[in-house]
Amino acid sequence: MKTEETENGTVELWTAAEVAQARDKIVLIDVRTPQEHGLERIGGALLMALQEFQVDALPGQSDKRIVLHCGSGVRSGKAAAMCLAAGIEPIAHMEGGLGAWKEAGQEYVGTDPATGAPKKMRKER
């Protein structure tokens, strides 16, 4: 895991592989829009869209670490900065977001184009 120093503290940058390996030890929070989340998402990720992001509504980290993600890593980086500004540390976000997750061949929930129903998917490698 890499780290990035900001004016408010240190943000941890996790790879898709690190997030996948730690799934039982983290709370994964998706900061994309509800529409994006509805079309495709990482199974089990909670949704707290950036436009409604409330730092005080985040779960505590005594049992599990918080890792934020979005589509590319930009919005989750903004949400992580908001957390640091509010004094929440440690905080992490996934580099490359859902795009990196899919490129790494990790399973995600997408939309079956034939039926419109949710379907487990994985990019062929």
> What is the distance, rounded to the nearest whole angstrom, between the alpha carbons of the first and last residues?
23 Å
Radius of gyration based on Cα positions: 14 Å
Helix content: 10-25%
Name the overall outline.
globular
* CATH class membership: Alpha Beta
Percent of residues in beta strands?
25-35%
CATH architecture: 3-Layer(aba) Sandwich
Could you say how many structural domains there are in total? 1
Task: Give the integer mean of the pLDDT values.
Answer: 95
Most strands sheet: 6 strands, mixed
Number of separate helices: 4
Please name the CATH topology.
Oxidized Rhodanese, domain 1
What order do the SSEs take from the amino end to the carboxyl end, as H and E? EEHEHEEHEHEE
Query: How would you classify the helix and strand content by structural class?
Result: alpha/beta
Poorly predicted ranges: none
CATH homologous superfamily grouping: Rhodanese-like domain
**DSSP E strands, number:** 8
Q: Spatial order of the strands in the main sheet?
A: 1-2-6-5-3-4
Explain the layout of strands and helices.
Elements: E1 2-6, E2 9-14, H1 16-21, E3 26-30, H2 34-39, E4 46-47, E5 65-69, H3 74-85, E6 91-94, H4 97-103, E7 108-111, E8 118-121
Parallel strand pairs: 2-6, 3-4, 3-5, 5-6
Antiparallel strand pairs: 1-2, 7-8
What does this molecule look like?
The chain has 125 residues and is of the alpha/beta class. The protein has one domain (2-121): Rhodanese-like domain (Oxidized Rhodanese, domain 1, 3-Layer(aba) Sandwich). The chain is 25% helix and 28% strand. It contains 4 helices and 8 strands, in the order E-E-H-E-H-E-E-H-E-H-E-E. It has helices at 16-21, 34-39, 74-85, 97-103; strands at 2-6, 9-14, 26-30, 46-47, 65-69, 91-94, 108-111, 118-121. It has a 6-stranded mixed beta sheet. It has a two-stranded antiparallel ribbon with strand order 7-8. Strand 3, helix 2 and strand 4 form a beta-alpha-beta unit. The radius of gyration is 14 Å and the shape is globular.
